[in-house]
C-alpha cells in the first residue's frame, strides 16, 4: 500500500492552524500518527497555552493501540528537550517504537533543535521538508522571537 504522505502532513498542518495563536509562547504543532495500513491511529495539536505538545497528545490518544512501526507526520521537529523536565517529544516517539517521522519544518529553538538527531540515533528514519513551504508561516513569529 502506498501512503499519501502529503495528505497526512496537510492534516497535521490543518491541526496546527486550528491552534495557531492559542499556544502562548510555544509554537502550534500538528501531529498525525498513521499505521502501515494507512489508517490514522491518532492525532493531536499543541494544547492551549502551549502544553501538552502535539506528539504527547497524539501518543496519549492511541487508546490502547500501539504506535510501534507507525509513521508520524509532524509540522515542527519534535523537541529534543523540554523546559518542564518532562520527556521530550523525540524521546516519547522513540519509546513508542515508531518507524519513521516526517517533519515539515526544522526547529530553530535551542531546546527543540536536535530532536531529529535523537530520532536518527535511535534508528528511526526521518525525512524533513515535506510541505515545508505550507507550514513555514506557522513558525515565522516564533522563530523571530528567538532573536
Description:
The structure is a single chain. By secondary structure, the chain is of the alpha/beta class. The protein has one domain (5-144): Cytidine Deaminase, domain 2 (3-Layer(aba) Sandwich), CATH 3.40.140.10. The chain has six helices and five strands. The protein has helices spanning 5-19, 54-60, 89-96, 115-121, 132-135, 140-144, and strands at residues 30-34, 40-45, 71-76, 100-105, 125-128. A five-stranded mixed sheet has the order 2-1-3-4-5. Helix 3 (89-96) runs parallel beside helix 4. The model has no long low-confidence stretch (mean pLDDT 96). This is CMP/dCMP-type deaminase domain-containing protein.
Task: Break the fold down into its secondary structure elements and pairings.
Blueprint: H1 5-19, E1 30-34, E2 40-45, H2 54-60, E3 71-76, H3 89-96, E4 100-105, H4 115-121, E5 125-128, H5 132-135, H6 140-144
Parallel strand pairs: 3-4, 4-5
Antiparallel strand pairs: 1-2, 1-3
Amino acid at each position: 500500500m502506498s501512503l499519501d504522505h502529503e495528505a497526512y502532513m496537510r492534516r497535521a498542518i490543518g491541526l496546527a492552524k486550528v491552534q495557531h495563536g492559542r499556544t502562548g509562547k510555544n509554537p502550534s504543532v500538528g501531529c498525525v500518527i498513521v499505521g502501515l495500513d494507512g489508517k490514522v491511529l491518532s492525532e493531536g495539536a499543541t494544547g492551549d497555552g502551549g502544553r501538552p505538545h502535539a506528539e504527547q497528545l497524539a501518543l496519549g490518544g492511541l487508546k490502547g493501540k500501539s504506535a510501534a512501526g507507525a509513521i508520524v507526520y509532524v509540522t515542527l521537529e519534535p523537541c529534543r528537550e523540554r523546559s518542564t523536565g518532562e520527556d521530550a517529544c523525540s524521546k516519547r516517539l522513540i519509546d513508542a517504537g515508531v518507524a519513521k517521522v516526517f517533519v515539515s519544518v526544522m526547529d530553530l529553538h535551542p531546546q527543540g533543535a536536535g530532536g531529529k538527531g535523537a530520532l536518527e540515533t535511535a534508528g528511526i528514519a526521518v525525512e524533513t521538508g515535506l510541505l515545508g513551504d505550507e507550514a513555514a508561516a506557522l513558525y515565522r513569529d516564533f522563530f523571530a522571537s528567538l532573536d
